[in-house]
Every structure is written in C-alpha cells, then in structure tokens.
Amino acid sequence: MKSISQCLFSYLSGFKNLCVAFSGGVDSTFLLAAAKQAVPGRVLAINVSSFLITKEEISFAREMAAMLDAEFVRIDLGEIKDSLFLSNPVNRCYICKKIIFKEIIREAEKHGITAVADGTNADDKKDFRPGLKAVSELGVISPLAKTGFTKAAIRTASKAMGIITWNKPSSPCLATRIPYGIPITRKALSRIEQAERVLTQNGFSGCRVRYFGDTAKIEVMAPDMERLASRNMREKIVSELKKTGFLYVTLDLEGYESGRLNRAIEKNEPG
C-alpha cells in the first residue's frame, strides 16, 4: 500500500505544469515543495497580497518561495471593495476566495497554466470553511486533502524534508479576528495587525486579538496565560494595545482556539 506521501507525489506527477496558490504558510509551502519535486514541467507559485494579510506574511511568502527556488508571481489586490464581503456575513470566506482565486486563475492562464492547486488539507474538510465551496466551484484542485494529508502529517513531512515552516504557527487572514456582522474596515484590520505584533514581539506565539470595536480580546496559548497576566507584562501589553486605538483590553480565559468565532454560527443553527 502506498504511503500518503507516495500518493501525493504520484498525483502531482500527473500534471504537466501546475500553479500553486501560495501564501507561505505550512500547507502551501509543503505543497509547493512537493510539486517542485513531482511535477515534470513548470511550477508557478502565485501569491496574493491584500489588506487582509500582515506585512510580515507578505514578505515571508516571497522569501520562502526564493528558499524553495520556485518561480514566484505576486498579485496585489490592495483593499477588497466588495460591499457584501465588507459587511462580514457568515459566508465572507466564500466571497473572498471567489475574488482571490479568479485572479489567480487569470494570472496562471497568462503563463499558459490551467491547473491551479491550493493548500487545503484533510482537516479543513471537517471545519466550517465556506471558502472551500468557492475553490471547488472554480475547478481548483486540493492535492493535500485528496491524498489524505492532515495538518499534523504536513508538519511531520515538512520537517523530514527540511522545510522551515514545519512548526510555523497558523496565520489566517486578519478578517478571521472580526466577529460576523461587524464590518471589515482597513482601520479595524490595521488595529488588529498592530496589536498582534505587540504580542508576538513580547514572545507570545500563536496568539490572536479578536476585534470587538473598542474592545480587544486577547487569546494566547494556555501555558502563556500566567506570564501575560503577571503585573509587569499585563501593564505593558494593555498600554501598547491602547496605543493602537483600543479602549479596553481583555483576556479570553479559555486561551487560543482556532475558529473561535464560529461558535456564533453553531449557536444560531436551527435545532
């Protein structure tokens, strides 16, 4: 029986050329590295930058592509002006993915490549991710999900291949910090980005700052709570976050949890 790695490389080898939607995150970096080895022809990494992505992530994607010696193209969308998306409905990810992947597909076709792949993994299929529907509707393939790669398996395989992103914290777009129904604005996203940078610079990895208007709700890993709550650190973090524009700073006692804001959807589901 083939291993999932063998299945992935066998699957990728069936494409003459391939475009990888590349963010520089754990999943898309592993996929790009695998494609570079398996695809017999051209492999193109297309990165999309926008006001939803931090400056650090935008810079890192280019650096990571260079480390993999991958052909790299960036599309700068700037501020997404779709009014429905900006109203932040429950399916905002669907709207956003449609916008982004249409641009990626268009750019790939300019380079003569019709096959576009994304880094969706097998775990993503179990979560509330309306963007997956948009990806599927546009004919984008998801090799990692198709061959059974979970996030843990991707990290393990990445480490074995010497890819530095194997232990990189997840960094979804900044809009995921804003509860559904609260409008997405450049001001809100900038405040979130600055606030999370403060936490990161103070040694808190894998943290989130959820945006509730004038209130910032901090999520850190459970082992980091005691350090954050210590008097000196607490006063420092509160002071720095207020400088970004927040009036109130709170700590989520449950700690960091991916997809925390999706609880509102589950609560309002019928039955």
The appropriate CATH architecture of the largest domain is: 3-Layer(aba) Sandwich
Average pLDDT reading: 94
Record the strand order, biggest sheet. 3-2-1-4
Radius of gyration computed on alpha carbons? 19 Å
Could you list some keywords that capture this structure?
271 residues; alpha/beta; Rossmann fold; Alpha-Beta Plaits; 2 domains; 4-stranded parallel β-sheet; 3-stranded mixed β-sheet; 44% helix
Structure description:
By secondary structure, this protein is an alpha/beta fold. It has two domains: 164 residues, HUPs (Rossmann fold, 3-Layer(aba) Sandwich); 93 residues, Alpha-Beta Plaits (2-Layer Sandwich). It is built from twelve helices and seven strands. The strands form two sheets. A four-stranded parallel beta sheet has the order 3-2-1-4, with helices on both faces. A three-stranded mixed beta sheet has the order 5-6-7, with helices on one face. Helix 2 links the parallel strand 1 and strand 2. Helix 1 crosses helix 2 and helix 5 packs parallel to helix 6. The longest helix is centred in the middle third of the chain and has 19 residues. The radius of gyration is 19 Å and the shape is globular. The termini are far apart. 34% of the residues are buried.
Question: How do the strands and helices of this protein lay out in sequence?
Answer:
Layout: H1 4-12, E1 18-21, H2 26-38, E2 43-50, H3 55-67, E3 71-78, H4 83-86, H5 92-110, E4 116-117, H6 131-137, H7 143-146, H8 151-160, H9 186-201, E5 208-212, E6 215-219, H10 225-229, H11 231-243, E7 248-251, H12 263-268
